[in-house]
Automatic annotation (TrEMBL):
Signal peptide: 1-28
Pfam families membership: Poly_export
Name by which UniProt lists this protein: Polysaccharide biosynthesis/export family protein
InterPro entries: Poly_export (IPR049712), Poly_export_N (IPR003715)
Limits of the Polysaccharide export protein N-terminal domain: 103-175
Length: 574
């Protein structure tokens, strides 16, 4: 169903509530007489339901904590299959991309190589290594200290050194040609501790990825240290990188150690969130406000359920988000975010022949008659006897029923044994036909059409969110479809029977079942052609025959074919 904006919804709601208060008199309305007979009964029924709801005791009350509400159904596999927040970092994405050491902030180290070209008063074209003292030796100039100098400052420092000796008519060009590789130890709670090669400007993430990432069961994603000569140079929290893109540490040197510490306290978060994760805590206690910032909550989340262990024993708390923000969450807790607010309104759509808007925001207990009593129509054009509703829940039940029938068909007949060779050949052929039929039948999408009339009287019912109400136009035609030679639409002629229209469409096809002809009304009602008189807008649906010597199989297939015809107004051939 097409979505509408909140502003449009408010306007439509205002318009409809006004209509419900004063019915339109500009155009005739055929629905009023039908609804007036039942309004008093509906009011008494609704009052009884409200009283019963008030008297019904609440369940799942947490007397110790004072929280109450419906405890969500927990699937045991959810927590078992969850991964730590950040585990996706180490899937090879950093391993294949290395820094080249030529970024402007790179700090020069012993072993690096500098290309130097000087021309004018003197000519020099050399590749100069940075020695152990951090110098490059320039002929006729002498040593120049470059260790610790950034790549962006190198050219200025060398140029100044050359011009101290050759102040005039000299030009200098420098370039950092290569950098000294480093070997870094990666240890602690990683999957493959070891010594890994890289360049000084590589990120810690590059080396962690080479070590196949952090041990998801025991390693910490928030306590990672960079050590040099036994001293801590940097402490890193990968949550800062995941959430804000921050990961600051010193440039690596040969012999540095990256240490992943043991995992700290953690909690399991799932429910109405973007993705279920284990979240690691920096401290032994985390407050709900911080957790809500870490876990991206889905729209509409209203409550949080916390379950765990405390010194006093098992602990559970169910609260709205506002008090949950100040709630302390401890190591090992399980937090489930749920949307536990019931909407006071529903949105329904109107289609077909009528005047006015197409979408309406109604009270959740609004009925079909209450809506239609205030919808102006042109009685000359609109077919008010054939109003119907397309409902999502009905379509889902129709599809579930169809799939269950197909499953029983496969289970019963595709695995049956054969006593003779001839019977086996027949079963093989039937199995092929059944398999092809089942494959086509599974593609059928039920329309969810709900018949809301009886003997041309419109029944009243409570509307549901997402309902699509159809007020069809009057039709002058009859549609003939299914197993006929020329499916077509013909002008309705009073007195003509279904068989007359079938003859006009070329007659029955060779696969037709002449005993099973259905009449589908505009409102979705399905009748046998022998039991009903045709009227404009009807569809004549000729079902296919089931050709098999197995009477039980023929009965099952016929039942499924009927089921498909009613749910989707189509005829599938076996």
């Amino acid at each position: 169903m097409k979505r509408i904006s909140m502003r449009q919804g408010r306007l439509l709601a205002t318009a409809l509530f006004g209509l419900l208060c004063c019915a339109s008199t500009a155009l005739a309305n055929p629905f009023t007489d039908q609804s007036q007979q039942t309004q008093a009964q509906q009011a008494r029924a609704m009052q009884a339901q409200q009283q019963a709801a008030l008297q019904e005791p609440r369940s799942n009350v947490n007397w110790q904590q004072g929280g109450y509400g419906p405890i969500p159904t927990m699937e045991q596999g959810i927590v078992r299959d969850m991964r730590p927040f950040g585990a996706e970092l180490f899937s090879g994405g950093f391993r294949g991309t290395r820094a080249d050491g030529l970024n402007p902030d790179y700090r020069i180290l012993p072993g690096d190589q500098v290309t130097l070209r000087v021309w004018g008063a003197v000519d020099i074209d050399r590749i100069l290594p940075v020695d152990a003292q951090g110098n490059i030796f320039i002929p006729s100039i002498g040593p120049v200290q470059v260790q610790g100098v950034s790549h962006s400052q190198l050219d200025t420092i060398v140029r100044n050194a050359v011009r101290k000796v050759y102040p005039d008519n000299v030009y200098v060009y420098t370039n950092l040609q290569g950098v000294q590789p480093v070997a870094v130890f990666v240890t602690g709670f990683v999957n493959k501790p070891g010594r890994y090669a890289g360049v000084p400007s590589d990120s810690v993430l590059y080396f962690l990825d080479q070590a196949s990432g952090i041990d998801e069961e025991q390693g910490s994603y928030r306590r990672i240290r960079l050590l040099r000569n036994g001293e801590t140079l940097a402490e890193m929290d990968l949550y800062d990188f995941l959430l804000e893109g921050k990961l600051n540490h010193a440039q690596l040197q040969n012999g540095d150690t990256i240490l992943v510490e043991r995992r700290g306290p953690q909690i399991a978060v799932h429910g109405e969130v973007g993705r279920a994760y284990f979240y690691e805590l920096n401290d032994d206690v985390l407050y709900g406000k911080t957790l809500m910032q870490l876990a991206q909550l889905d729209a509409g989340v209203s409550h949080a359920l916390v379950r765990g262990q405390r010194a006093s024993g098992p602990y559970a708390n169910y609260q709205p988000l506002e008090p949950f923000a100040e709630l302390a969450i401890a190591n090992g807790d399980e937090v489930v975010f749920v949307a536990d607010r019931h909407a006071d309104t529903i949105v329904v759509q109107l289609e077909g022949s009528y005047y006015g808007p197409s979408f309406f925001i109604l009270p959740k207990n609004a009925t079909l008659h209450q809506l239609l009593d205030n919808i102006p129509v042109d009685q000359v054009i609109a077919e008010t006897r054939s109003i119907s509703i397309r409902r999502v829940s009905v379509a889902e039940r129709q599809r579930e029923s169809l799939l269950e029938s197909l499953r029983r068909l496969e289970t019963t007949y595709l695995g049956a044994s054969s006593a003779t060779v001839e019977e086996s050949a027949i079963r093989v052929r039937e199995a092929e036909l059944i398999s092809a039929f089942v494959a086509r039948a599974r593609e059928v999408e039920p329309n969810g059409r709900l018949v809301v009339s009886h003997r041309d009287q419109l029944l009243d019912l409570r509307l549901q969110d997402g309902d699509v109400i159809t007020i069809p136009e009057r039709s002058d035609s009859i549609l003939v479809s299914g197993e006929v030679y020329i499916p077509q639409a013909s002008i309705f002629v009073p007195g003509m029977s279904a068989w007359n229209y079938i003859e006009a469409a070329g007659g029955f096809s060779q696969h037709a079942d002449k005993r099973r002809i259905l009449i589908v009304r505009q409102n979705g009602e399905v009748r046998n052609a022998r039991d009903v008189e045709l009227r404009p807008g009807d569809e004549i649906l000729v079902l296919p025959a089931v050709t098999t010597k197995n009477l039980q199989l023929a009965s099952t297939l016929t039942q499924i074919i009927y089921q498909i015809a009613i749910a989707a107004k189509v005829a599938i051939d076996i």
